Amino acid sequence: MRIDPWGAKQYENYGRLMEQFGIQEMKEEDWKDLPDPPYFFRRGIVFGHRDFGRIKKAIVQKRPWAILTGLMPSGKMHLGHKMVIDQIIYYQKVGADIFIAVADIEAYATRGYSLKEAEKLAMEEYIANYIALGLKPCNIYFQSKNDDVKNLGYLLGKKANWSEMTAIYGFNGSTNMAHIFAPLIQCGDILHVQLQKYGGARPTLVPVGIDQDPHLRFTRDIASAHRLFNVARAKDGRMGIFVKVDENVKELMDIAEKEGKKYGITERNDAYRAIYLDDANIDELDEALAKREQEKGAYGFISPSSTYHRFMTGIMGGKMSSSKPNSAIFLTDTPDIARKKIQAAKTGGAVSLEEQRKHGGKPHECVIYELFLYHLIKDDKELEEIYNSCISGEQMCGNCKKMATNLMEKFLLELQERRKDAYDKIKEYVN
Ligand code: TRP
Ligand code: SF4
């Protein structure tokens, strides 16, 4: 099975995808030490990750780290898009350097938007809403205007070949060349934050939906292909960092041995210098060596970490999507339109009130409950009460919809108010 980042499919069986692609499950122990664990962890909305441990360490130890995520300016911004921003706002509070790529080249190459249309949408829809939602000043840039990103994408392509591209993305002879280049641009997006000019080698988190995982696999491969030192498990099962014996990097090999002594046992043979160490110290040494590589003029990119969040269900089931206006609640919907959508929403209620009183409803199959869970109800206790009163048959869908309508109205009106000031502030965010 292949994940198509440009497809319209709703991926439902997250468990299977995670297993197939080696994504780790996000467990309570992975986030419970973070400051004020946010709702998207507590409620299982962020369900999977690659290498999040590295990020958690950076947060807890207050070391520098970065976030890079991207937005595709196609269609209007809906509640599903809000989830990434909620995450970014949290990470901004706990010390991340925030970068957001506006994927205007990608929208042009894959969705048929002009750069001008993409720019207008990005500014008026997305960035204005991000600010209204509470994002503080950070680095938002357009792919088409960032030469560092584009150059890096091109140069990194040296270590990717066509078979890899077709295997990951399913490209074929009729895929247009701008589209074929899109993954490399995204790779440029993700890794450029580690160029010295942008803060240098440091842990980077890419919070996305699972449809973007192919780009993460690709970028992680490319990052490590350009490394001089590589983390790997040796045949005997020990974890180590290895550097190929090469006269050109002799100096680096000496550094590796010296650094390595601080952390573990170094060994040499004719082909490799190896440093074996406890799994617990791998990240630290890896990061120290990445910095040294950069000092010597190599890329030295630390493989980016990622998290995956659930997609929102559309109002009538299926995927919430900008291209199907009735499936989505847009952040610019009026309360009246939102009310109509909520009225029409698929619930987990039984066929009749009587049935529902007897057997209860199914909140985990209910779009209204999802609105509460993802957006409208902040207090876990309150949410739990709704859950319990639903399954016990005390709560009826009509009531729930009324409550959802009221909360949504309040949310949309407040956001509308805050959007008014947001337009003037856009300059502070975009470069
Ligand atoms: N491809 C992403 C999308 O379709 C947008 C994007 C571009 C992105 N660059 C990125 C996402 C870098 C994460 C990281 O929405
Ligand atoms: Fe959903 Fe509420 Fe109906 Fe339960 S009672 S199925 S939570 S709308």
Model description:
This protein has 431 residues and is of the alpha/beta class. Helix content is 49%, strand content 13%. It contains 18 helices and eleven strands. A hairpin with a 3-residue loop joins strand 9 and strand 10. Helix 6 packs antiparallel against helix 10 (177-192), helix 7 packs across helix 18 (397-425) and helix 16 runs parallel beside helix 18. The protein is globular, with a radius of gyration of 23 Å. The model has no long low-confidence stretch (mean pLDDT 93). Bound molecules: tryptophan (TRP) and iron/sulfur cluster (SF4). Iron/sulfur cluster binds at residues 347-349, 361, 363, 366, 368-369, 390, 395-397, 400.
Output mean pLDDT: 93
Radius of gyration from the CA trace? 23 Å
Q: Any ligands, ions or cofactors bound here, and which?
A: tryptophan, iron/sulfur cluster
The amount of helix comes to 40-55%
- The parts where pLDDT drops under 50 for at least 5 residues are none
